[in-house]
């Protein structure tokens, strides 16, 4: 799409193209990257402390699409949230996400040696350092949200912390990882309902709460929060289906991590259940569902609608 067509699409409120959206996503990523670089601990102190701080920064900075931070910041923008506050929420959810990746990559979990094209934390340092770096990043997420700089209202800060805890704990991301490991140990592939629940918890919960944070910061009516939550839930499911497709059809060079691991581990995915074309069709349905939840916002929600399409068109 050339510049004239892009301007016309924006004026009409139409979703923008993949390349154009990638530029929008990149701009949000740069803003939250600056925030993370400022908030994460400096690489100082004694030998052990310096290693911990270096590992935390290594795991968090310089990589990733920052989709979760984008959702927090873009929803925040739509809800009238100052950019500085929305960027802090985005940084918090990225710290939580980074912690989950550090721990998931360890030998006792998914046993991955590569993440975003770089050695994983336990490979670069040690398993002990990886555990501590993940723990530090998890604590950092809640420290950011609980700080008055995120919002002057203690009630709002408490709600942010509560929702992130719920989304990342046993009833969310951690519970999803436990389901995943349990199914792998039992060597019994999950059915469609089981796969959907696993993915809703393991991947979807954090994506959903990231978008919800922007609405919480804006103190908007609960009906608006419900629409944003439903949008992000559909987007999260589409995102995981796209990841499953990349594990089958992508390459290590594209994804920055090993591919084909789900099949090798005997894990069931929607690609197994629906086939490649069926999974692609389902992802398309979810994009349309996500867009429908944004209809009440009108043209101003075009970046969020484009985000849903981007999740299924990406190659990394």
UniProtKB/TrEMBL annotation:
Checking CDD domains in the record gives:
Trans_IPPS_HT
Q: Which keywords belong to this entry?
A: Isoprene biosynthesis, Magnesium, Metal-binding, Transferase
Q: Which PROSITE patterns match?
A: POLYPRENYL_SYNTHASE_1, POLYPRENYL_SYNTHASE_2
Cofactor(s) needed, names only, are:
Mg(2+)
**NCBIfam families per UniProt:** FPPsyn
| Family, similarity comment | Belongs to the FPP/GGPP synthase family.
Recorded protein name is Polyprenyl synthetase family protein
Q: Which organism is it from?
A: Paralimibaculum aggregatum
């Amino acid at each position: 799409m050339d510049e004239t067509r892009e301007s016309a699409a924006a004026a009409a409120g139409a979703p923008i193209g993949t390349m154009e959206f990638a530029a929008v996503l990149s701009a949000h990523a740069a803003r939250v990257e600056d925030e993370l670089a400022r908030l994460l601990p400096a690489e100082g102190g004694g030998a052990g402390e310096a290693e911990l701080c270096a590992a935390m920064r290594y795991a968090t900075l310089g990589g990733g699409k920052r989709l979760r931070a984008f959702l927090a910041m873009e929803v925040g923008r739509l809800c009238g949230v100052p950019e500085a506050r929305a960027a802090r929420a985005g940084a918090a959810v990225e710290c939580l996400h980074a912690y989950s990746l550090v721990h998931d990559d360890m030998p006792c979990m998914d046993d991955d040696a590569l993440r975003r094209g770089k050695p994983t934390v336990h490979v670069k340092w040690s398993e002990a350092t990886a555990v501590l770096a993940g723990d530090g990043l998890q604590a950092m997420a809640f420290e950011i949200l609980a700080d008055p700089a995120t919002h002057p209202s203690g009630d709002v800060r408490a709600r942010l912390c509560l929702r992130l805890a719920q989304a990342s704990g046993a009833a969310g991301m951690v519970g999803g990882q436990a389901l995943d490991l349990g199914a792998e140990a039992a060597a019994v592939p999950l059915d469609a309902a089981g796969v959907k629940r696993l993915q809703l918890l393991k991947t979807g919960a954090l994506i959903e709460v990231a978008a919800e944070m922007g609405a919480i910061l804006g103190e908007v009516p609960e009906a608006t929060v419900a629409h944003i939550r439903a949008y992000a839930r559909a987007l999260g499911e589409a995102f995981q289906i796209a990841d499953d497709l990349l594990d089958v059809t992508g390459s290590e060079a594209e994804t920055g991590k090993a591919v084909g691991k789900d099949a090798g581990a005997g894990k069931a995915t929607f690609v197994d259940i629906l086939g490649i074309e069926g999974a692609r069709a389902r992802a398309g349905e979810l994009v349309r569902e996500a867009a429908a939840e944004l209809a009440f916002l009108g043209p101003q929600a075009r970046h969020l609608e484009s985000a849903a399409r981007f999740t299924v068109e990406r190659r990394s």
